[in-house]
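Please complete every field before forwarding. Incomplete forms are returned to the sender.

SECTION A: IDENTIFIERS
Entry label: holo-356
Bound molecule: S-adenosylmethionine
Molecule representation: SMILES string

SECTION B: INPUTS
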Amino acid sequence: MGHSAIRIDSRNEKEGVLVPKKRKGTKNFMDVSLELRKKDFESKAGRYFVDILPVGVQKSLKRAVLETGIESEDGLKWLKHALSDNGNGHPNSPIARGVYEDPYNPRAFKYLYGEEDALSEMDKGYIFTSGAHAIYLRLQSIIEKLPDVIKKERRKLKLKKSEKFVIFNIGAAYGLDTIYMMVEHPELADKVEIVHIDPDEDSLVCGMKYAEKLGVIKSFKFVTEKVENYEKGKAHMILFIGMFCPTPTRQCIFTLKFIKKFLVENGVVIFSTVQEKMLMEGPILDFIMWTYGWRMYFKADDEPGQIATLAGLKHEKAMDWEDEIGHNRMTVARNPKPSVLGRVGDVFKLVKALVL
Ligand SMILES: C[S@@+](CC[C@H](N)C(=O)[O-])C[C@H]1O[C@@H](n2cnc3c(N)ncnc32)[C@H](O)[C@@H]1O
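SECTION C: PREDICTED COMPLEX
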């Protein structure tokens, strides 16, 4: 699911030459006005980040973001520095190293969520950026909003008191959103069953340990599996958080269409997207992430709703929410009752999606 648009060609890497693959597609830092890019360098986070770099790399970073772009000597010089050792046997940026080796490895999120302290000055600078802070705010907003949504959905679906409201947290990684929610809302303990589905065993086990330690484990199940291979039962709610950030729009539609099969009739999926506001307010972060191989596909304001509709879901616009600074949107969409007319409509929507 998703892919990074820039990977260093490993053949050339062996020969000691870093060559980024061609870039393509939607908006990126070079589409942000020069004025806003300069403003980002003048921000507290921008200044912090630049000041900790060696002078030569500072110049390259600035030139790459303001003038020469990602596929330039400047861009490569920056990347080489981020991936290099600091002389004490540690990488200049453990986040860069981890993400570069595997963009889907969720380890970096421990730092973004503040569960662990950043391991280097460069990583501290990364976490200072507004985009990185917004990921923490996204987590907080989910913990705050979700209990109400669950309670309302239970009523809407007319579940019996003894019936569990089943939530699939797909791509859960540590699953801090649902774990912390349960810690703060013990009244939900007998009312929900939360299934964390993720092929990354280490992060699931880590989440399991948190849930045990915090006394909420009985509400959880953990499945070490890619969702494509999961076949057990259906959910009243699917959480798909942080999964569409690096995913082009059309691929989001097809993915949503696929995971819809896990929803009961009238069940809801909540998926998050990174919005263009994040790019406009943090072009340096976009550059940094892109060089690490963590390319974001920022969505325009109406895109998440369109993704839901084109996937054959009913967009529950009034239920959507954003993190406190509007970088991440949580979109809520319902699995409608199937009808013949609906199926004809689905075919029409799919054709539309293909030309989008
Ligand atoms: C960016 S992390 C999102 C983590 C979490 N939802 C959060 O908000 O912090 C993406 C997660 O998706 C998982 N993942 C990747 N492909 C998957 C698949 N096919 N099925 C289920 N999970 C997948 C990765 O292992 C990773 O833990």
